[in-house]
Design a protein that fits this description.
single chain, alpha/beta, 3 domains, 5-stranded parallel β-sheet, 21 strands, 24% strand
C-alpha cells in the first residue's frame, strides 16, 4: 500500500496529508513490452480539496447504482431451482434472502462426495453419469480454473465477487482484473453458499433429477423428480431451470413437451498444452518466474481468409487437462487449475466456431454433433475414457502421433497417441491447422511441434438456446431458462448474474 500511496501522490501532485482515504479497486499486469512488465492499478482516492488535484488520468468517482426491482410475489407455492451451478446457486440465494425458501434439485452429489467420485473416475475410469466433472454441487465450474472474468458490464458482477469473498474466496478477487479462485478453493466457497441458503429456509436436495413437469393452459403447475429410485412430486408455479450445458436429457425432454428452443452457434476443438515456463517466457520475457506475476495467461484469436474464426478459450495457467465426461461411451476434455496455478503445463481450448444449422434444421442438431464427436473419441482411444491426443507437429503434418516428446499430456485418465482428424469434423481440423501458425505469431512457441493437442473439447457452450421473453419466462409460463445451459451465459460470473436476475423476475411476477 505504501507504493500505491506514493504513486497516487506523484500522479496527483499532492502531499500525503491531502489523501484522506485510499482503496485499491483493480490491479492488472501490462506485459505488452517484454522489457517493461509492470502492474497497472486503479485506485479510489478520497482527497481534501479534490478539485485542486484533478489531473489527466484522474476522474471523479461515480458509483453505478444497482437497480433492484420491487418484489411483489404473493404465491404460497415455493419456487424450485433445478441445477446448483453458478446460476442455480445465486438464484436460490437471492430467493432465500427474499424469504421465499426455494427448493433446489441437484442431480449430482454434494461437493465433497463429488470430488471423491471424480477422483475415483480418474483413477479407475469407472464413470458415474450423475456425479462427475459436469454434474453435482457447483456445476461444471467447480472443476475448472474458477475464472471470474467476464465481458458483460453488469453491476451485479461486483456484488457476486463480494459474496464469493464473504464465503471464503481469496479476497484478492475483489481487485484482480482477471480474478480466479481455483478448483481446490471453490469447494469450501460453494459449501458456505449452500449453508446460507439452508439457514434461510431453503432446501437443497442432492441426487434429485428433474424428470417431469405438469402443465395446465400453458402454465407450469408442478414437477416430478427422482431421488434414491423413488419419484416425488412438487406443486409449484416457478421453475428456475439452471441445469447447465451438459444436461442433454433434460433439454431433450423439454423439447419433446413443446418448450420452444433454437439452435445456437457454439464451438468445438481440442485442449492445447505447453510447458508453463514457455508461456511465462513468451508473455513476460526476462520477468518470467517472478512470484508476484504468477503463471502467465493468454487469449488468442484469428480469422481465416474464408471467414472462419479460431480462438483460445478457458485458458488454465499452470493447470491440467481433465476428462470431463458425463455420458457413458463418450469422451470430452476440459481444463482445470488450482489456486496456485503451479502445475508444470498450461493449457487452453483451441476452438473453431460451428454453425449448427449446417447439421440440419432440428433445434437439437448441435447436441447430436457434440455427442457423435465424443463417442468417436471414446472408440478411438480404446473405449476406456482415455483421451485421444496428438503432437502439434504430427497434427500439422497430417500424420497420427505414435508417442509424445518433451511435452507430456496431463489428462488423468490417460492420453492415447492418436489422430484427431478421426475425431473432429474436417472443417474444424482444417481451420485449426491453418490457424496454428497464425496464432504462433501472437504467442511464441504456440505451434511448437512438441506441444500437445488433447481432445475433444465440445462443451465450451450450449448449442441450444431455450427461448425466453424479457420477463425471463420461456414459452411455458412459469419456466425460467437461465444460465449457460439455457444459452444465456458464458462463465461463472455471467451465469451467476443471470441466476440473480432470473430470481428477481420470479419475485416480481
Amino acid at each position: 500500500m505504501e507504493n500505491l500511496t506514493r504513486a497516487v501522490q506523484v500522479k496527483l501532485c499532492c502531499p500525503g496529508e491531502a489523501i484522506l482515504n485510499l482503496r485499491l479497486l483493480r490491479q492488472s499486469i501490462d506485459s505488452r513490452k517484454k522489457n517493461d512488465v509492470h502492474f497497472v492499478c486503479h485506485a479510489l482516492v478520497e482527497i481534501a480539496d479534490e478539485a485542486r488535484y484533478l489531473r489527466p488520468g484522474a476522474e471523479l468517482y461515480r458509483e453505478k447504482p444497482l437497480d433492484i426491482p420491487a418484489f411483489r410475489r404473493s404465491s404460497p407455492l415455493r419456487p424450485v431451482v433445478a441445477g446448483f451451478g453458478p446460476a442455480g446457486i445465486f438464484a436460490a440465494l437471492t430467493l432465500a434472502r427474499a424469504g421465499h425458501r426455494p427448493i433446489v434439485l441437484e442431480r449430482g452429489q454434494p461437493i465433497a462426495q463429488r470430488q471423491a467420485d471424480v477422483t475415483r473416475f480418474h483413477e479407475t475410469r469407472a464413470l458415474d453419469p450423475e456425479s462427475n466433472v459436469q454434474f453435482g454441487e457447483g456445476g461444471a465450474g467447480a472443476f475448472s480454473d474458477g475464472k471470474l472474468s467476464t465481458g458483460i458490464k453488469d453491476p451485479l458482477c461486483r456484488r457476486i465477487l463480494e459474496d464469493l469473498a464473504a464465503h471464503g474466496a481469496p479476497p484478492e478477487i475483489l481487485v484482480q482484473a482477471k480474478p480466479h479462485i481455483g478448483t481446490d478453493k471453490l469447494g469450501g466457497v460453494i459449501t458456505a453458499l449452500r449453508e446460507e441458503i439452508e439457514t434461510l429456509g431453503g432446501n437443497v436436495l442432492f441426487g434429485a433429477r428433474l424428470d417431469g413437469i405438469s402443465i395446465e393452459h400453458n402454465q407450469l403447475t408442478g414437477l416430478t423428480y427422482t431421488q434414491n429410485a423413488a419419484r416425488h412430486a412438487i406443486e409449484t408455479d416457478a421453475l428456475l431451470l439452471c441445469v447447465g450445458h451438459s444436461a442433454r436429457d433434460t433439454v431433450e425432454y423439454l423439447h419433446a413437451t413443446g418448450v420452444e428452443m433454437r439452435q445456437k452457434p457454439f464451438a468445438v476443438g481440442a485442449r492445447i498444452e505447453h510447458p508453463r515456463e514457455w508461456v511465462d517466457r513468451a508473455q513476460y520475457g526476462d520477468f518470467a518466474g517472478r512470484p508476484a506475476l504468477g503463471a502467465a495467461e493468454y487469449k488468442l484469436a484469428t480469422q481465416l481468409p474464408d471467414g472462419k474464426g479460431v480462438y483460445t478459450f478457458c485458458m488454465c495457467p499452470g493447470g491440467t487437462v481433465v476428462c470431463a465426461s458425463s455420458e457413458e461411451g463418450g469422451v470430452v476434455t476440459n481444463g482445470m487449475s488450482r489456486h496456485a496455478r503451479s502445475e508444470k503445463n498450461s493449457n487452453a481450448a483451441l476452438l473453431v466456431g460451428i454453425d449448427p444449422s449446417q447439421e440440419g434444421p432440428h433445434p437439437l442438431a448441435g447436441i447430436a454433433l457434440q455427442r457423435g464427436i465424443e463417442r468417436s473419441a471414446f472408440a478411438l482411444a480404446g473405449n476406456s475414457y482415455a483421451a485421444p491426443a496428438q503432437a502439434v507437429g504430427d497434427f500439422l503434418a497430417a500424420r497420427p502421433s505414435r508417442r509424445f516428446g518433451f511435452v507430456k499430456p496431463t489428462c488423468p485418465t490417460g492420453a492415447m497417441p492418436s489422430d484427431l482428424r478421426r475425431v473432429l469434423p474436417e472443417p474444424v481440423t482444417s481451420a485449426m491447422a491453418r490457424a496454428l501458425p497464425l496464432l504462433a505469431r501472437q504467442l511464441n512457441r504456440f505451434a511448437h511441434p512438441e506441444a500437445v493437442l488433447t481432445g475433444p473439447e465440445t462443451r465450451s457452450s450450449s448449442p441450444v438456446r431455450i427461448v425466453r421473453g424479457e420477463d425471463r419466462q420461456g414459452s411455458l409460463r412459469g419456466l425460467y431458462p437461465l444460465g449457460e445451459g439455457a444459452g444465456y451465459a458464458g462463465g461463472i460470473l455471467s451465469a451467476a448474474a443471470d441466476g440473480i436476475r432470473g430470481a428477481w423476475a420470479v419475485l416480481n411476477a
